[in-house]
Amino acid sequence: MIRVSHLNKSYNHPDMILKDVSFDVKKGDFVYLSGPSGAGKTTLFRLLFADLKPDGGQIVVDGLDLVKARPARIAHLRQRMGVVFQDYKLIPNYTVFDNVALALEIAGTPRRLIQKAVWRVLKVVGVERQLDRLPPQLSGGEQQRVAIARALVNDPQLILADEPTGNLDYEIANEIMSIFNYINSLGATIVMVTHNRALLQRFKRKVFYLDQGSLQAYVWPD
Amino acid sequence: MAKIQDHIYPLFKLTANNIRRHPVINLISISIISIAMLMLILYFLGYSNAARIVSTWRADLRIVVYLVDDIDGERMSALKNYCRELDEVIRFDYVSKEQALKNFKVTLGENSNFLSGLSENPLPASLELFLDSEIAEIDDVERLARQLQRQVGVDEVAYGSRWLRQLFSLLKTVKYFGFVFAAFLSAVTIFIVASTIRLSLYARRETIRVLYLVGATRSFIALPYLFEGVFQGAVASFLALGFAYAGFCYFKAWLQLQVPQWSIVLQLKFFTTLPLLLFLLLGTSLGIAGFLLSSRWVRQD
Prior knowledge:
The complex is a heterodimer.
Chain A: E1 2-9, E2 18-25, E3 30-34, H1 41-48, E4 56-61, E5 64-65, H2 71-80, E6 81-84, H3 96-106, H4 111-125, H5 140-152, E7 158-162, H6 170-185, E8 189-193, H7 197-202, E9 206-211, E10 214-219
Parallel strand pairs in A: 3-8, 3-9, 6-7, 7-8
Antiparallel strand pairs in A: 1-2, 1-4, 4-5, 9-10
Chain B: H1 4-21, H2 23-58, E1 62-67, H3 73-84, E2 89-95, H4 97-108, E3 126-131, H5 138-149, E4 154-159, H6 162-203, H7 205-213, H8 218-258, H9 273-294
Antiparallel strand pairs in B: 1-3, 1-4, 2-3
Helix pairs in contact in B: 1-8, 2-6, 2-8, 2-9, 6-9, 8-9
């Protein structure tokens, strides 16, 4: 599903953020991308949906070479994947419903299906009662869940999530992880960025650990 | 399978959202296009009415050919044939010396008594030529007059179109200036509309970024702005035409009250359907052109 080869990124700074990073994520995998603050996790995360261009190397996602792809192809790839951002990236003057429906509208989903799909996914993440509210009227945890709902609403085969449980309490974080696990069990590939060691320990998966721009892969030991 | 309306509906929804959520920016754009359109409409309304009135005067194009007293029948006949063959001449009337005197007496009315003291009729016979206003240009009148002057049996040729010629040349200048004025106003309007769209894009940059991140294509982002441009242009044109029409009716009524003896006021007319549609099209095009100029700011990255 994802193939990253010899990736470099420096932001024009002598110290490389990412140095010769290579890894594969197979279809149906659930992997973590972890590491200390400033290790380059978010940079690598943004490179995976072409929000940044690398200085060198290759990124192939679902068969599409992100370095060479034209903007329209990248847009269509983004429509097939779900992305959860650390800062939610919700549109503040759109209601919860409109924010989630947007992903479906962009993909050209028939209108008659949108209402049902949005309501269903909001119920899954537990914010169906906030349907008509604006993001600034919600708590951080609620906004996080709306952002997750927007990423899931298209039933994507690839989900990229940057600290999706970062603003949630223990119980809600568990619920959210259960949702990601459930979606993964249905066949979706999930790449989750987290620095939360407790989470890595609780839900053991393959971990790509970034430190000073270099990558190591391991599974959290029992 | 998504239908075409499933792709179009969100674009209209985004357009409606853009308009509803940024009323001030839209109001500024609509006001600017309206003012520019109103200036253009009033200019061309003035021009079209002036041109119509002058055309009615032009329909009265005439040349009077005064004949020498001793013209014989053969020469007279040749001169009539010559006039008959001129394309610009619709018809001509022969006015004999006697008829000319009679006409003169009628013109003088009570003051015509002194004419009875004359031993002989001093007035010449003449041919009065009526020209086809569809064919004859003002320049043709002068050319025809010169040709007629050269004919045998012609004493003098008179035509009163010099002032018309000056008026026409003035109208031509006004017309060309109108196009330059229209081009200048359009360019300024397009630039200002483009600037307001850029302002709007800047105000919505965070929303646009989110749209890109969740998979929107460039056209998905840009098309609502195009629709917004069309909306602004169309509304502004309607407003400008409405204001112009109201102003025109008021001005015409005021003029009729001030100078009721001027029959010319009745000839003042507002635009017919075709120019109205053209103005609507122009206003809408200004909105679209403003969008096109600013569309490069809708970037993919």
